[in-house]
Structures are given as C-alpha cells and as structure tokens.
Amino acid sequence: MYDSGRPPICPHCGKKMSKWTGTHLQFGGCTTWASQFLYVCFNDECPYFVNGWDWMWNNYHRHVSYRHMLDPDTGQTNPFPVKSEDALKKGIIDG
C-alpha cells in the first residue's frame, strides 16, 4: 500500500507522478485495479514511455507505448498502455 501523503516519483525519470481516474471501460472492462485513482507518470520525456514505442513495435508490431503506473491501494506497479502522447491525459485529477 502506498501512503506517503504526496505523489510518488517515477523510478524511470524522477518526475512526480499524477493522480489519474478513469473507467475500466477505457480498457475494454479488462482491468485489475480496484482503487479510486491510480498514479501515472505522464512525463512525455520519460525513458520508459519514450523507449516503449520502439519496444512495442519491435516485439509486437504495434504503434503503442506505455507509462509507469502505481496502484496506491496495493503498491503494485504495472505498464499503463497508451496509443498516443495525449491518451488518457483527460483523466488527470491533479498535476
């Protein structure tokens, strides 16, 4: 469980992660988080996100990437799939 009272720092770029809220429908209803919000690194210069484009293309031939995500209720981190730089940014509830 994550509870430091302030947003976590992305381990890939050192930038503050943002609170994000969205619906499970955005992922076809196939999600595993139960938290009211997630922490996501929306830094467009984060190496995890930047390098994800090539990795996904080279391994799966898909034009997608991923961002670092933390579930504050479980402390679990996962890749957070995105189709563009702007994908899912409308769900940011704090910067």
Distance between the termini: 21 Å
Count of distinct structural domains: 1
Please tell me how large the radius of gyration is: 13 Å
Low-confidence stretches: none
- Major sheet: 4 strands, antiparallel
In short:
The protein is built from 1 helix and 4 strands. With 95 residues, the chain is an alpha+beta fold.
How would you characterize this protein structure?
- It is globular and about 40 Å long.
- Helices cover 15% and strands 19% of the residues.
- β3 (65-70) and β4 (77-82) form a beta hairpin.
- It is built from one helix and four strands.
- The longest helix is centred in the middle third of the chain and has 14 residues, at 47-60.
- The protein starts with 17 loop residues before the first strand and ends in a 13-residue tail after the last strand.
- The chain has a four-stranded antiparallel β-sheet, covered by helices on one side.
- The mean pLDDT is 87.
- The chain has one domain.
- It is of the alpha+beta class.
- It has one helix spanning 47-60, and strands at residues 18-20, 38-40, 65-70, 77-82.
- 18% of the residues are buried.
